[in-house]
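protien #1 (seq + structre)
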Amino acid sequence: KIGEKGLSSPVVLAGKLFFTTFLPGISDPCQASQGSGRLYGIDAINASALFEDWLAGGDDTKLETGDRTFALGGGIPSSAVPIFQKQGVTLLIGTGGGARSVDPDIALPRVRTYWYEE
C-alpha cells in the first residue's frame, strides 16, 4: 500500500519471519490521522505466505498473497515480541489500543541454556 512503512525490528522463529508495518491514514496531509498497523508473517527463505485465513482456522493448503498479513488496528505497532510458553510461542504486539496477542502456529521446544565461565 502507498505510504506503508516498517518501523520496527523483524523477528525470525523456526524459519518464519514476522514484522509489523504502519500505514498512515492520509486523506489530507494537513490533518492528523491515527493510521493502522499490520503484522506480516512470511517464510524466511522464499517469502511465501504462512497461513491460509490467518487466525481464522482456515485450510493451509492454498496460500495466497493476502495470507501474509494480519490487521492489528489503529496506531503504530511495536515489534512482535515472542513469548515462550509450555504450549508454544505467542507473539505480543503493542498497538494504539493496547497490546495484541497473536498465535503464530509455532511449537518450538523449550530448552534451558546455562552459561558458565571456566
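ok now protien #2
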Amino acid sequence: MRLVIARCSVDYIGRLRAHLPLATRLLLVKADGSVLVHSDGGSYKPLNWMSPPATLRIIEPAPEDAELGVMQTWNVQHAKSDDRLVISIHELMHESSHDLGVDPGLVKDGVEADLQRLLAEQITLLGDGYSLIRREYMTAIGPVDILARDGHGRTVAIELKRRGDIDGVEQLTRYLELLNRDPLMAPVKGVYAAQQIKPQARVLAQDRGIDCLTLDYDAMRGVDDVDSRCAGSTTSIRASSDVTPGRGTVVPVQRHIESADDRNRWGGGVCPGTTGAGQDHCRRRRPRLRERPDYVRRSCWGIPACV
C-alpha cells in the first residue's frame, strides 16, 4: 500500500463529473489497483475513489496546469469503462509504501449462524419442555433455521434474524404453510426470534399467530450477567408469554424494568407484589392502559416483582 499526503485537486470524469478543490488530502493506492482520496473527516468513507481494476499513470502536468502550480498529475483509468480519476498534485508532504501481506479477512461475531447455534444449545429459552429436532431443516422452499418440539409434543418452526422485520415474518409464514400440509407434522407453530424485532413485524406476527422472542446475545453466550443489571434501565431479560386481552392469543412479551423517566411520563401506582424496599429496586409501576406502550401494559402484571 502506498500512502501519500499532498495538496491536490481531484476531478472524476465518466458517467458523472465531480470536482474536489485544492486542499490537503490523503491518497491511498492499494495493491489491487484501487485509488482512494481521503480527508481528515468523514469517518471511513473516501471523498472520491476509483475501484479496481484500474491503472495509475503519473505524468507531467500540462503547461497551463504547471503555471498554476501543479507539479504532478495522476491519471487513474478504469480498465472496463471510460471512467477516469485525475489528481493534480501541487505539493507532496509525505510518501511511503508498506507491504501489508495477505489479510485473513473479517471474522464477524453475532451473525445469524451464531444465534442459531446458541439457541439450539439453549432451546429451553423457548419454554420448559422444549427439545431440538434439528437445525437447518430443509424444505422445498428453503431451510427452516430451527425445528423443535414443545412440551406438548407439537412441532415448532423457528426463524432467526439479527434484526427482525416484516420480510422475516413473511418468510416464516411460507414455511408454516408448507409444513402444515404434512399430516405427520401438523399443526406446526411458528416462533420469530431476533435480537431486535420491529414493531410492524411484531404486529404482523401476532396477527398470524406467530410468537415473537427477543434474544439477548451477550446473555446467551455467557458474557453478561442479566441478574446484576441496574434496575433503573429498560432491559430485555427473556421473552415470556402473556394473553392479549380480548383475543385469547398467546403473545410473547418482554419483561420490563422502568426508569424514573418512564414513571414520570406514565405515572400510576406501584406494581402489585412489590412492597417496601422492593418498590425502589423494581421500579415497576401500575400502568395507565391508554398511555403505556402495549408491551409494557401486558408485561407488568402477573410476573415476579424483581426479575
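The mean pLDDT is 79.
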